[in-house]
Design brief:
The structure holds four protein chains of four kinds.
Chain A (H helix, E strand, L loop, with lengths): L5 H17 L5 H16 L1 H34 L6 H44 L17 H17 L8 H9 L3 H4 L5 H9 L6 H34 L7 H31 L17 H7 L2 H16 L2 H14 L1 H24 L3 H19 L1 H11 L5 H18 L1 H5 L2 H13 L3 H4 L11 H24 L3 H6 L2 H18 L11 H4 L2
Chain B lengths: L1 H22 L27 H6 L6 E4 L2 E4 L4 H8 L4 E6 L6 E6 L3 E8 L2 E9 L16 H8 L4 E2 L3 E6 L2 E8 L2 E9 L3
Antiparallel strand pairs in B: 1-2, 3-4, 4-5, 5-6, 6-10, 7-8, 8-9, 9-10
Chain C lengths: L1 H10 L19 H15 L10 H4 L2 H13 L1
The chains are: A mainly alpha, B alpha+beta, C mainly alpha, D alpha/beta.
Chain lengths: 527, 191, 75, 367
């Protein structure tokens, strides 16, 4: 079920009505679980087995770990006198190994399922490039949202092992955390510590919360249907016939894709969080005005935030502060000098994070390269920082408004260029197309009507442009006032209602859905 | 009591969604938009498709060659008609409410028909009129039923007066009289 | 404590670490800085800060960080 | 006390905002739907035919069912003028057999005719053909279980019931191609037929048709024959005479094998089947002057001749009322005749001026 499918909308409407009208407060989580499982069941009943196994693994090992840890703590406490600090350390170390083993088993099983389903064919394909007799692909089903829910259970397993969250003893409740359906389509990746309480004890129905959720859903659909699904048509033409559309067209691809991806992704997140909000569940934000970022690090702190923090907390930090790394850090500082030595370990961890990020995005080489390119850019900007500092000291541009605007524009263009990997889905082609921007000068061509041959007509461009201006103004409001425009609108109820109605009508009329818009699935169907 | 109501409602809503699901377009597989980039198409798909298989299942169709010109069913008609030369008589018939135009080009030994879709013409059918022309498999008017079966196989669908073989979005039909082919027609399946 | 402030000052000379209590919330320290701090602390105090302690609450102020170090030293 | 009052006032304010909002949303959607659906007022007027039936006030003793072979070939006014037959043609472009069946069901909700005449050409289609034709036939139907079933039976791949229930979902992207006609006809439609008859007065003589394509299988599709049977049953249940005809036009080709099957059906069910192709001379058709599109369909002159011929058959064989003698019905027919004559004169005037029709047919497409 896609967000934009009619079935999904009916599903949500029925669920919300039943949920608020007929289900007592303390049983609401049960309905959410049933709805989530139904969501999966209708997509493909076999998915239930996968998500069930993943949830059960994390659930069981969490309880084992927690029980074991509390036992050894109790043992330590009870036999305080018999331990000196040395033997205490020893006892801790040996028992910690058992606890680590539980964690390792949970991770191996769950990440193993993810790897087996999602990456087997990628590996085979890669091997085949070296073989004369190609291996045949395996026919494996890839459960919907497996990347998202696997990451959620992995973070849970690690948190349990660290002792930062309490294990959930009710399997069904844990299954709900794993399978909460709005998140399975586009994320975000929630943490057990953030989501559990609100999921098991949702807020009761309340006008403000419900209205804000509802208008957020509408806003999400508006962005997705009116902008993203419309621009996709033009993008499809541009990307699928790269030989015809070089040079300035690549820039058009960059711009269209930046707008398309932003609207599609944030729109989807708005729908997810909006649905959760109308159900009284608070889901963590995933975006914070990423296109206003002044540098790439800031960008990644604002774009797909739940993924960014996941990689930071569960890969970057553990790697960086692991004893091996600390030793390496010491060594490199001694041998390579303080300045470089300090950075070596950080960069190694950073490299691993971006390699993993690339692979996580999809089983294809262009994602890997895309991830590593991000690493390169981050590293470069890090290395150039002293240079920047000198520059700023000399000219004093920093903090000036026009310079901020320049920084924002620079970051936007940089990130948009990196996204080309995702557009062309072929590493060589992406480099070729990017290069063509600099040696094929055909800007004039853009204005002789060739943009109207991409499958979008004048009306489409107008609608998309006006809608993008609206999106920009709403973002600008948040940037300047520090809160969402819808919260301000809610204080003037009639205006709020009017906006909601207009959003609904505009989406129904100007949305790129239904017959004549079948092309909208291209982004997803390329594999 | 309350629980009962809830469960009944649930069942009802499930049934409703089940109905809604089955009536919808099933072919849009559930898709996951994953991380920072939009994609991750594979999630939610039922197994990876062999790329070769995809290419093959594209738009296969019967092709008839006349005087060196390949006439493929459902192919754009303009170039083919141009290549076939001027030796034809022409007939056109608008369908009700201008929903398209059936055009018929009659040559010495064949009749070519086209249909209109979105302002462009496509090959709708080719009819073989005499035994000076033959299909790619060597069947011509006057061939026997057995020869047809030998050339095209046994998986044809027999009708009251002939047999049809389907390939991709086209089919070829042979009409028999007294065990001999009296007419051969290629027809496009217009989706 | 002074030594800790020194470490922090090395990273960002323009921040008043004695008083600031929103080092993470206001995005003054990023993940790279945190890793640098952990490795410096490991060197100078011989205290290994495990990954599970790398949470905003422990890094929002110099005082919180000092408290963390003291706690870990005791263990 | 005051506090309670203030509180309830606020509640009233909130509730009225919500209610007004919901009302505005529904009204907006309803209006936009009205605006965005195609009106079929110029050029392709076939899409407006089905809905026009509901505006016709006189009783109809004869109902014609079928595609362009009825709505372009039989002048309802000639039937009335010559014989006093009050009839209606429930036909539309490429109307499929099951659509004719459900339109009969639909008609029976309003009146019970004495005779139902079905043109058999559509029997050759066993499957839905195209969405546009579906839309032109189905969108105009008033809502009933018949419409629902007709849609169910007619949907092509990729079509959804919901798009018929809420046409705005199907036509929303027409915001880009709205014309003046759309704005002028949001709430009212112009008349495009006279009791279902679509008039054309221009002339294009019949040309030679290409030879027919041989078929591997001449069996008429099971589906359409089933619906024919259902039409027969429905007529019998309602004491309606059921008549099968094949219009006198030669193209699309009507195979003899098909003719035999229909004849067999008619014989076994003891109903008449008249193939007018064989009766072209008796009808008096002169295909150099009586067709407007090279012989596919009849023009006004041809349609009046055919109406005259089929009308005689109907009055002789069935006990039909001569509505010229029933003042309240005759009055209504006078209006129809007036419209008919005006339309004919207008078309003739254009023909005289330009040599072709500009406000009707392919030249006028603006839908």
């Amino acid at each position: 079920m896609l967000f934009t499918s009619l079935q999904f909308i009916v599903f949500i409407a029925v669920l919300t009505a039943v949920y608020h009208l007929f289900v007592p407060q303390n049983e609401k989580w049960g309905l959410l679980l049933i709805a989530s499982l139904a969501f999966y069941f209708f997509a493909d009943p076999r998915y239930l087995i996968f998500i069930g196994v993943t949830a059960f693994t994390a659930y069981v090992f969490a309880i084992l770990t927690e029980d074991y840890n509390s036992k050894r703590k109790a043992y330590l406490k009870a036999n305080k006198e018999s331990f000196d600090s040395e033997s205490k350390k020893k006892y801790k170390a040996t028992t910690a190994r058992v606890s680590k083993l539980f964690l390792a088993l949970a991770l191996i099983i769950n990440l193993g399922i993810l790897a087996a389903t999602k990456y087997t064919n990628f590996v085979i394909d890669t091997i085949n490039t070296w073989r004369t007799e190609p291996l045949s692909f395996v026919n494996i089903i890839i459960p919907m949202g497996i990347s998202f829910y696997t990451f959620q259970t992995v973070s849970y397993s690690i948190d349990i092992s660290r002792g930062t969250v309490k294990a959930q003893r009710n399997f069904w409740k844990f299954l709900l955390f794993t399978s909460f359906f709005p998140q399975l389509v586009q994320g975000p990746i929630s943490r057990y510590g953030d989501l559990s309480e609100t999921l098991y004890n949702p807020k009761p129905l309340e006008l403000r919360n419900f209205s804000l959720g509802l208008i957020r859903i509408l806003w999400g659909y508006f962005k997705k249907l009116v902008i993203a699904d419309r621009l996709v048509i033009g993008l499809k033409t541009l990307v699928e016939t790269p030989d015809e559309y070089k040079g300035a067209y690549v820039f058009v691809v960059m711009m269209l894709y930046a707008a398309q991806l932003y609207c599609d992704f944030t729109g989807g997140i708005d729908i997810t969080i909006g649905i959760a909000q109308t159900l009284g569940v608070t889901v963590k934000e995933n975006f914070d005005l990423p296109y206003f970022s002044k540098n790439i690090k800031e960008y990644w702190n604002r774009w797909h935030m739940t993924m960014g923090t996941w990689f930071t907390d569960y890969i970057f930090y553990p790697l960086s502060v692991s004893p091996t790394m600390l030793k390496l850090s010491k060594w490199s500082r001694q041998h390579l000098g303080n300045a470089i030595g300090k950075r070596v370990t950080v960069y190694i961890s950073c490299f691993c994070v971006w390699l993993a990020t690339g692979i996580w995005h999809g089983a294809a080489w262009h994602f890997v390269v895309w991830g590593l390119m991000n690493f390169v850019v981050i590293m470069a900007s890090q290395e150039l920082e002293p240079l920047y500092a000198k520059f700023h000291n000399k000219f004093g541009f920093k903090g000036k408004k026009w310079y901020s605007a320049f920084e924002i524009l620079r970051t936007f263009l940089l990130m948009s260029s990196l996204k080309l990997f995702d557009c062309y889905r072929d590493v060589g082609l992406t480099f070729k197309m990017f290069g063509s921007m600099f040696y094929t000068f055909n800007i004039g061509k853009l204005f002789n009507g060739s943009l109207l041959e991409l499958g979008l007509n004048k009306g489409d461009y107008w609608v998309a442009s006006i809608a993008l201006v609206i999106v920009f103004l709403v973002s600008l409001y948040k940037k300047l006032k520090g809160r969402e425009a819808r919260e301000m609108l809610f204080e003037k109820l009639p205006l709020f209602v009017l906006c909601a109605v207009c959003l609904l009508l505009a989406t129904v009329v100007f949305g790129a859905y239904g017959t004549g818009f079948d092309a909208s699935q291209f982004i997803y169907n390329q594999f | 009591m309350n629980k009962k109501i809830v469960s009944v409602l649930l069942m009802a809503s499930m049934a409703f969604t089940a109905v809604a699901c089955s009536s919808g377009d099933e072919d849009t597989a559930p898709v996951v938009l994953s991380g920072g980039q939009a994609t991750d198409a594979v999630e939610g798909s039922n197994g990876a498709q062999d790329p070769a298989e995809v290419a093959e299942s594209g738009s296969d169709a019967y092709v008839f060659t006349y005087n060196g010109t390949q006439i493929r069913m459902n192919a754009p008609a303009d170039d083919i008609i141009a290549a076939l030369g001027d030796g034809y008589t022409y007939f056109e018939a608008p369908s009700c409410a201008f929903e398209g135009m059936d055009k018929v080009y009659t040559y010495n030994s064949i009749v070519v028909r086209s249909y209109t879709r979105d302002g462009a013409d496509y090959i709708a059918a080719v009819e073989l009129k005499d035994d000076t022309v033959a299909t790619a498999e060597g069947i011509r008017i006057g061939s026997t039923e057995d020869e047809v079966r030998a050339a095209y196989g046994e998986d044809g669908v027999a009708g009251t007066s002939g047999i049809e073989y389907t390939l991709g979005d086209s089919f070829i039909s042979f009409i028999f009289e007294n065990g001999k082919v009296v007419a051969i027609t290629y027809t496009a399946i217009v989706g | 404590m002074d030594e800790l402030i020194e470490i922090l000052q090395d990273l960002h000379s323009d921040v008043d670490f004695e008083t600031c209590t929103t080092l993470i919330d206001d995005k003054i320290l990023d993940s790279f800085d945190i890793v640098s701090i952990v490795s410096e602390v490991n060197d100078r105090f011989d205290v290994a800060i495990p990954a599970k302690e790398l949470i905003p609450e422990n890094f929002n102020s110099a005082a919180a960080l000092w408290a963390l170090i003291s706690r870990l030293e005791e263990d | 006390m005051k506090k309670v009052k203030g509180f309830s006032l606020y509640k009233v304010y909130v509730v009225s905002c919500i209610v007004l909002g919901i009302a505005a949303a529904f009204f907006g959607l309803w209006f936009l739907q009205k605006l965005l659906v195609p009106k079929y007022q110029r050029g392709v007027v076939e899409g407006a035919m089905i809905a026009e039936y509901y505006d016709s006030e006189e009783p109809h003793e004869v109902i014609f069912l079928g595609d362009c072979e009825v709505y372009e070939n039989i002048s309802t006014v000639a039937l009335y003028r010559d014989y006093g037959i009050s009839s209606y043609i429930r036909g539309s472009a490429q109307q499929l057999t099951w659509q004719s069946y459900y339109l009969l069901e639909d008609t029976l909700r309003y009146e019970t005719p004495r005779v139902v005449v079905f043109n058999v050409l559509a029997l050759k289609y066993g499957e839905p053909q195209s969405e546009s034709y579906n839309r032109m036939t189905l969108d105009g139907m008033a809502w009933s279980s018949s419409k629902w079933n007709a849609i169910e039976a007619s949907m092509t791949e990729g079509e959804n019931m919901i798009d018929y229930v809420f046409p705005i979902l199907r036509y929303h992207s027409r915001w880009n191609e709205l014309t003046r006609t759309d704005f002028e006809h949001v709430f009212q439609r112009d008349r495009v037929t006279i009791n279902g008859y679509y008039m054309r007065t221009d002339i294009l003589p019949e040309a030679e048709f290409p030879s027919s394509m041989p078929l591997a299988d001449y069996t008429l599709p099971e589906t359409s024959m089933e619906y024919l049977e259902m039409m027969f049953d429905l007529c019998r249940e309602n004491d309606i005479e059921f008549v099968l005809i094949k219009a006198p036009t030669l193209y699309p080709y009507w195979y003899e094998e098909w003719d035999d099957q229909v004849r067999e059906f008619a014989d076994s069910h003891h109903i008449p089947y008249i193939n007018y192709i064989q009766l072209r001379d008796q009808i008096g058709l002169d295909m150099t002057t009586d067709t407007y599109d090279a012989g596919l369909h009849l023009n006004l002159a041809g349609a009046e001749k055919f109406a005259d011929y089929i009308g005689r058959y109907l009055v002789i064989n069935y006990d039909l009322t001569d509505y010229r003698e029933v003042p309240e019905v005759a009055r209504l027919w006078e209006d129809d005749i007036q419209f008919y004559d005006q339309l004919r004169d207008a078309q003739n005037a254009e023909l005289a001026e330009y040599g072709e029709l500009r406000s009707w047919g392919a030249n006028a497409i603006e839908n």
